[in-house]
Amino acid sequence: MTKMLIIGLLCVAFSNVLTAQTYAYKVDLNAIEDDLLAVELTMPAIKKNKLKFHLPKMVPGTYAVYNFGRFVSDFKAWDKDGNEIEVDHSDVNTWEIKKAKKCAKITYKVEDTWDTEKPNVIFEPAGINFDTENNVFVFNNHGIFGYFEKYEKLPFKITVDRPANLFGGSAMIRTGGDADTDIFETGSYNSLVDNPIMFAAPDTAMIKVGNTDVLIHNYSPTGKVKASYLVEEIKPILEAQRQYLGGELPVDKYAFLIFLNEQGEMYLSGSAGALEHSYSSFYAMFEGDPSAIGQQIRDVAAHEFFHIVTPLSIHSEQIHDFDFINPEMSRHLWLYEGATEYAAQHVQVKQELVPMEQFLDVMGEKMRNADQYDQSLSFTKLSQTALDENKTQYGNVYQKGALITMCLDLQLRILSDGAYGTQNMMSDLSSEFGINKAFKDKCLFYEITKVTGHKKEIMSFFDRYVAGTEPLPISSLVAQAGITYKEKGTIMELSPFGIDMNGGVTLNPELKKIQILGAGIDDFGVDVMKLEDGDVLHKWNGDELTLESIQSVLTTYMMGMEEGQELEIVVMRKDKEGVYQEKTLTGKLQKMPIEVTHVFTLDENPTPQQLKIRESWLLDK
Per-residue confidence at 183, pLDDT binned at 50, 70, 90? Predict the structure, then answer.
């Protein structure tokens, strides 16, 4: 009995040591005032005379410097008796505690980044939102919780008092709490940043995809978009990705956190989108017709979900030990974003969710988009300078980055007689490295040649087209798959508006709405919708178009448009007396011939060898 008592006391003592070595944060969602959340940190047991406390300058996945410390105010340090300790706010993201050994607690307030007057607005999927009116709260934890320099690897415990009717959706482990409290725990600051939380009324759905439990947690301001609907839209692409990755997913759990802004209400950044994490992704989109939202989420999820491969399982040391204050950029954005975007498109044709022609049209569109960027800039240099001198070129990672991976995929399949492509390459790299092992940034090309073979040819590919600036050999590669490439040609494409929304419209100062210029109306607008020069856009599928709402309304519509869909446009058109009158125009979306650059067509009579490469590339064979 004495022995058991000693063991029990040792266990309690060890537990207390572990607790003492933990960042213990506490916040109360019920006490938010003026968009400010009070944060309290009970100090981990760090015996240092001076400590530097940081909030991040930048976080993984954003490729932008945001300086989250600028949203912190009223920062104070306290000893165990409640006496304030001197703090030096040495830079925007740093607070230095002078007598850190005496410090028992830190308190500060954090401002809502979704509703701020500060410049350099944070893209909403990377920010924080405290909406007390609608009772929904978005925690991207890097914007709320900080860490002590050199102590990022200690565990974190986050206690959140909240309204009892809210659910805290996250991939992070909930270890305790009660009806109006959640307690989350995780092993390091990197893990904390990697696990956003959304607190909202519980609208959730759970599905099993192979060996993976998938949560959908949804916030819809009007309630017309339900998680039960979204899960049916998301499930097919997840199943396709599971098959694409060999039948099993590399994670045992995943969470989709989906925030829908009411249609017509713009986000402060002017954009909508998502941010990926290892075990979850957060979406800031627009509410609209459920079928349109489902298509939006499915399209974005196809990209974001593939980040479970890279950078979760395949990443460099810069990402594995991310420096939140002085980030060092990897030279391989072509892999992290380009290869992910390519896989998001490639999986759809491989699993027969889209026809070959549609996949090739998407690749042609990426070529057209890539033409807008600097062709003399190598991709390795773009990656390393995407935060500063070449930040305007960052968007090319989703265009040329995907095309680089397409060419690498074809090159590998040609060299292996159809037996090996980038699907196999990513699987082999995941096995070689994995979640807990990083590659050396300068050695990635060599590591790829090791797992793929054909060292001379593949190293030459990287030297010429990724580290170098030679134009991608797209024409010669697709030709070996029985596909003809032309620099110019005609394609059949949906015209989403019937109008050129860039150069074909102007502002009508009298009505404060968008007015159509005759030269901006295309064949669909003229022949089907019967639009006329001078028409003023008033409503789109029943939603009023104001200067404030037009972007969200048209973005939501465009993301969900399909051939044959009914379109209703209400315009203000002058009558013979020059008085504006409402006129309703209707038509069905249809494909129209348009002249474009970069066109692919399937050869009708490929050789047996060409057909073998094509089927290896574009069919699930």
Answer: very high
Q: Where are the alpha helices (DSSP H) in 156-252?
A: 189-193, 227-244
Tell me: do 109 and 35 sit in the same domain.
yes
Is the same domain home to 150 and 61?
A: yes
Q: 11 vs 3, 14, 44, 176, 186, CA distance in Å?
A: 12, 5, 19, 20, 21
Pair of tokens at residue 177: 């709490």
Instruction: Yes or no: say if 317 and 437 are a contact pair by the CB < 8 Å rule.
Output: no
- Predicted pLDDT at 19: 54
Backbone angles phi, psi at 108, to 5 degrees: -165, 175
What are 572's two structure tokens? 């203000």
Per-residue exposure over 33-58, b if at least 16 CB sit within 10 Å of its own CB, e if not:
eebbbebebbbbebeeeebbbbbbbb
Can you tell me whether residue 494 is helix, strand or coil?
strand
The domain in which residue 358 lies consists of 329-483+611-621
**Distance between CA atoms of 242 and 323, rounded to whole angstroms?**
32
Using alpha carbons, select from 186, 286, 298, 293 the residue that is nearest to residue 240: 298
pLDDT tens, position by position, 451-468 = 999 999 999 999 999 999
Place of tokens 């028992």: 104
Residues 64, 147 within the same domain: yes
pLDDT in tens, 376-415: 999 999 999 998 899 999 999 999 999 999 999 999 999 9
Q: Are 205 and 582 in contact (CB under 8 A)?
A: no
3-state helix, strand, coil in the chain (%, to 5): 35, 30, 35
- Highest mean pLDDT range out of 3-12, 555-564, 568-577? 568-577
